[in-house]
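Q: Could you fold this chain for me?
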Amino acid sequence: AGAMPSVRQTDTKILPVKSNGNLTSILKSSQAKSIADKDRILHIAGLLQTSLNVEELISHFSNEISTDVAHDHLNYINEKLDINFAIGKRARYSCTYELTINENKLGIISFTRSKKFSDQEIEQLEGLICALHYPLRNALLYNQAVQAAHKDALTGIGNRAAMTTELHRQLELAFRHSRSLGVIMMDIDHFKKINDKYGHAVGDYALQALVECAAKSVRISDLMFRYGGEEFVIVLPETDESGVLRLAKRIRRRVEKLETRIQGQTVPMTVSIGITTLQESDDDKTFVGRADEALYKAKRDGRNCIRIAS
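A: Sure. Below is the predicted structure, expressed as structure tokens.
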């Protein structure tokens, strides 16, 4: 921890910048040679502590160091958390670094510009990057905690809290841009019987199988959530009633044909589905509530069918 390897500019090789996250050891490293350098690193590190939003943090860092080392483009990538954030326009010459704290990878950061970086600028850049380690680690930990809090542990899709947040955002976008918005609410038929006959472990597997089946039917832009128990909600941006119905039919058919085999037994499964589309007078509750009413009508009408909210 502390001292970093001597490196030179490269267009292809990713160079390591390691730290133990402790500014004391960073300031003792060869990258912080003068009192002015140390003060600069401390100043930037202090500024970066004000945000736990990764994109905002990287933007602040880029803006702050631009007076020290000019750059046209900055790209930060964290594949594990599916983060790929870029600022500016990519240019010819680049310096790319993998950031780690105690062998924990924080991601890869790359700087590019039209003019080649001098050796002095590279050395200065590496010292400045050290100020990013600790704030970035905090932001990433916060990001992971938020994602975990909004994810259903069993199925891996968003939970009801995530649905509430995203649905509100989608309604705002739809109203602002006069776009259509659809929603599907579906429920596994006689799910209690599956649990009673095969056990809760099999019931959990059935829920996972349903999500996997539905995920193969939806578009990348569609959003799927576990509403609670065996109920699921799919929000469909820019989709009219015919489009929502088309997807609902596809999901119902695929679930009906799904051969879920557990311990040598085939577990039959069907879903009842209610659908609706956004109306001018809707808010979050009325929008989902109407789909919920349609779902219960489907269950009353014999299950394994689709009903459209009036």
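A (continued): Residues 119-149 form the longest helix (31 residues).
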